[in-house]
Known about the structure:
Layout: E1 7-12, H1 19-31, E2 36-41, E3 57-59, H2 70-84, E4 88-92, H3 97-102, E5 109-113, H4 127-136, E6 141-144, H5 147-156, E7 162-164, E8 186-190, H6 199-209, E9 216-220, H7 226-235, E10 242-246, H8 252-255, E11 260-263, H9 272-279, E12 284-287, H10 292-295, E13 304-305, H11 309-321, H12 323-340, H13 343-354
Parallel strand pairs: 1-2, 1-4, 2-3, 4-5, 5-6, 6-7, 8-9, 8-11, 9-10, 11-12, 12-13
Amino acid sequence: MTTPKPTALHVFSTFAVGGPQVRFASLAAHLGDGWRHLIVAMDGNMACRERLAPGLDVSFPVIAHRKGATVANARAFRAFLMAQRPDVLVTSNWGSIEWAMANFLPVVRHIHIEDGFGPEERTRQIPRRVWTRRLLLRHAEVVVPSLTLRAIATEIWRVPHVRYLPNGIDLARFSTTPHPVGSPPVIGTVAALRPEKNLSRLLRAFRLIADESTVQLVIVGDGPLRTDLQALAGELGIAERVRFAGHTDTVEMFYRDFDVFALSSDTEQMPLSVLEAMGSGLPVAATDVGDVRAMLVAENSNFVVAPDDAALAEAMRRLLANPSRARAIGAANRAKAERDYDQEAMLTSYAALLAGEGSC
């Protein structure tokens, strides 16, 4: 008799392309055909489906629910759990919290992955959400990718079972080939064009240094604020120096053209874009959010600054003004990525967690 595959039900607020979704795609590929995956996107967006490797045992059930109908939704989700009886429920971030409510009296083992917060929680924890997490996640294995989040989960939410699993990347994808000497310097960023990324700050900071050299700015990514950001670039008089590259599946090709990577976010935890910049041998000018300072080498820490236009501009200016130092910092960042942030180590840890090995 053939032993049935273990089944994991993964619930995302959205399955659009983003850090948690891309990480899942890598994990599913790592696990291969040995697992059956059910994927639920609360908003119906399945754009990251294209990132899944062929041949996987994956399905996408649609469970009817209504926004704001929390109790009714939780009942419907619990009925689905009772009917399907997956081996493990994996929820992602606040947008899937109704599934934690559905499993409050546990039907299945529950893993909850918290990658960070939206703009509404960038400066403070919302009390209602704190108490909800404290209550509904007390039986779950809560996984966080950053030390900042681990402190929040243990000290503020007071959930008992917390595991720190830092993100990792496929370092083989990212080249450390330096930008050709003599060509105009390029500051680059890779981000979804959403409010919490505060790319308007990056545009304003770039305006402060744009007259000093032939420096160019490249913004890779797409999102709801693209039109507004393009208009702001025009208002600032820098439109000809800024390239909006849009979404790409080959982001590593852009990193090769950058001299400096910039992060302007209001809230992050352990951003994959910074790991990718490190893997590409780049120095980073960034706002001091989440674990960004701890992720980078010590030599880079002077370029992690307050979330302020002028401070970010000065960090970028100083890196551009000393290319040899910038290249040395970038090389050290690459070495740290190789040592601490290899994707295989991350995927091995997630696979063991999914299988219940060494559970909290």
